[in-house]
Amino acid sequence: MKRVVVVGMGFGGVRAARELAGQGVEVVLVDRNNYHLFQPLLYQVATAGLEQESIAYPIRAMVRGLPRTRFILAEVTAIDLNGKTIETSSGPISYDYLVVGAGSVTNYFGNQELARHAFDLKRLADGEQLRNHVLTSFERAVAETDPEARKALMTFVIVGGGPTGVEFAGALIELVHFVLSKDYPELNAREARIMLVEAADRLLMAFPEKLSTYAVNKLRTMGVEVLFNRKVTSASATAVELDGVTTIATRTLFWSAGVCAAPLAALLGVEQGPGGRIPVQPDLSLKDHPEVFVIGDMAFLKQDGAALPMVAPVAMQMGIHVAKTILAREWGRPVQPFRYHDKGSMATIGRSAAVATTHGLNLRGYPAWLAWLLLHLYYLIGFRNRILVLLNWGWYYWFHERQVRLITDHEG
Amino acid sequence: MKRVVVVGMGFGGVRAARELAGQGVEVVLVDRNNYHLFQPLLYQVATAGLEQESIAYPIRAMVRGLPRTRFILAEVTAIDLNGKTIETSSGPISYDYLVVGAGSVTNYFGNQELARHAFDLKRLADGEQLRNHVLTSFERAVAETDPEARKALMTFVIVGGGPTGVEFAGALIELVHFVLSKDYPELNAREARIMLVEAADRLLMAFPEKLSTYAVNKLRTMGVEVLFNRKVTSASATAVELDGVTTIATRTLFWSAGVCAAPLAALLGVEQGPGGRIPVQPDLSLKDHPEVFVIGDMAFLKQDGAALPMVAPVAMQMGIHVAKTILAREWGRPVQPFRYHDKGSMATIGRSAAVATTHGLNLRGYPAWLAWLLLHLYYLIGFRNRILVLLNWGWYYWFHERQVRLITDHEG
């Protein structure tokens, strides 16, 4: 029986595994974590809205229901394409087919200073770490007697006007105005500044312009300062600099202005494309290695002249496609080139406010928010997790309360 | 207006705060964490049954509803009894009345080796750390080819037959047999050994003997090896030694064989009693300092010839009593000596199995388990937390499933 090894249990890897299981191949899943992370909700962990356990699902719980499938918790250390073997921290694993989808990491474009001082949201621990930092900043602000230092503690600079930046900015200002303002009567919550810095001249580039306009107006109404055509050029522990001229005193820089392929991509030993991504053939396989596939954020493929975006729906469709391709080859059936079907984009801004665009239909406000909510619940893995998330959302919606405001680790 | 400073937001501190608020005094609460921890359920975090967020409650959420009460997140560094001031990491705080209830820490009786290698369950982070370790041990066991080493990874030695040891042993073996046996089909779950080592000749000393017998029989039926009259005398990273003779290869030593007063007790500068506890007057105040009170695990007080136990009900009653004493003094009313009303004890062993003793009534099995469950839900702070815990318990009860089996941090 042929063995398919899937590296990376993100959106793509999970779909590939489900599609392959029980279809006459042996499936081996490899990840360095023992859970699948629902990354799109990580910003809600960072803003005390969700506990981290509700957006992670144990891979072994999933594997139980998949025939001829096993999971290996391991870090991949080398890939031998000619020997058809991967080396891992748990020993070597040989394969007949290899599917690599290890996702992306934050791209600081080589700026070590930014990398050192900025927070980001990619791994599960990032959410809790950022939440601890935000809450600790308010605790320190209470104890701070110097007004300038207090203001810096309550200033949050968010870089990048994509969905992550917009969602985090909206969730953070709601946390401050609805929740922390009541927790810290000693502080004036209106003193808190949340700045969203975007290098281009609009937010949410992937959306139609009128939805971008709605988003910026909504954020500004909520109190977020949105800055266009500005770049954060350097950072220290106590300040960031805009365009090398304006200095903003802050203790919190959040970076969502770029991603690149995870370092694992380099192990494939092939020439990497833009952002370190791996150029793939139309069927998502490697040139000269039709038995090796790359999916998700790691794969670089152009469609209709533009590179496919690094988003979850692309990864999911790629995972399913690769599984079907492998099975088609095994069964001697013809394989199809991959084609991404863009079902649209959505981003939430705040309570009852979101934007969504799908098949030429543009939604905003409450309908978009409801659609966002239902779709995220649908894609979340695990029934218990859905209930937990729904419970937390309901609590916030009706009581304006986010209860996960715990400082679970102390900053030095 | 007189200022009452309460140090420590455990069971005692929280009750004192609630009792004092709005009674004509200013209340200042101090804790180094921003949450109240419901410690009795920490072992369920360690055994993947509960997420840590469901057993912690933000102190500021509680303080919102308490008039003339504020919270300061700070570590206490010194106590000046004559100057009526405490020094903290957030600056000095003067008081008219001081209530100190900073709880207890694990007592390794000076054995540094044990302290270095053993796990315990006192702080919130301990639960997640132990869960990560248990799950990582199983992951390593899967990858381990040497049968002896694999057996050591699946051997868990629990020291101390009190409620914590019994509850953890029961919850751990159920995790292994009901949940992990399905997660790790590669392993033989029956190979897992869970040993409970007690220095005396029975478990649960605080209970009537027939309940102790029920507990040991139940644990043995579940597969726990219970050893009496044995002591763990030394430990390394790979083994523990019993009575200096028998060596057991294990990677997991859990210590619940003793507690002593938290180091903060020494800051009071008075002579400490057994286990570092602070001897108090019948009204729980310090000798020569009637304005300073010590409550909970930190207080040493004899009643009917025996020292009061270091358990949550004592702390809660002391917290309420001290608050009433302070208010009585302010109002010029007579104060009463503290008297602990023992309402009984309970400990859960497993699914539908517990022991409870109250006012001469002894319960075991399902009725005791139901009583345990309802009482713990009742004392848990926060309605949302109660729903979360109930949801997790229901899930486990009906589906034999514990979903928080996440390895959220990697061991070196």
From TrEMBL, chains A, B:
Its EC number is 1.6.5.9. Pfam families: NDH2_C (PF22366), Pyr_redox_2 (PF07992). SUPFAM superfamilies: FAD/NAD(P)-binding domain (SSF51905). One of its GO terms (molecular function) is NADH dehydrogenase (quinone) (non-electrogenic) activity. Keywords: FAD, Flavoprotein, NAD, Oxidoreductase, Transit peptide. Residues 343-393 form the External alternative NADH-ubiquinone oxidoreductase-like C-terminal domain. It is an enzyme of class 1 (oxidoreductase). Gene3D superfamilies: 3.50.50.100. It comes from the Bacteria. Residues 3-319 form the FAD/NAD(P)-binding domain. It catalyses: a quinone + NADH + H(+) = a quinol + NAD(+). Belongs to the NADH dehydrogenase family. PANTHER family: EXTERNAL NADH-UBIQUINONE OXIDOREDUCTASE 1, MITOCHONDRIAL-RELATED, NADH DEHYDROGENASE. This is NADH:ubiquinone reductase (non-electrogenic).
